[in-house]
Amino acid sequence: MSLIQEFKAFAARGNVIDMAVGIIIGAAFGKIVSSFVGDVIMPPIGLVLGGVDFSDLVVTLKDAEGATPAVVIAYGRFIQTIIDFLIIAFAIFMGLKAINTLKKKQEETATPAGPTKDQELLSEIRDLLKSQQGK
Description:
Pfam families: MscL. The protein is mainly α. The chain contains four helices and two strands.
């Protein structure tokens, strides 16, 4: 089988397509969370902390000189990125928890119940007959 044929077979599998859809949705979800954190969560936190704009929080290592921009460590944006990550991680955790709960419920309903009372009684009668035949 040629390399191209193998790749076509691989790409045509359903789980590869599912993964691609998941990545696209995940990227869009990441943008939504970034906007939520930057535009909804951080402004009130900044207001509570005395009107701080987190995107402006930087440590300047070297001031701008002419056309050369300043060299800064943008720790405010880093804090926003950490909050983005925590929200996304929590959302993924909750989603996986819901999926695992559903799987557990399906497994519980799928497991066959023990023998019925009639089956237990028949088993006892069979065992008694076997023991009497062996005498």
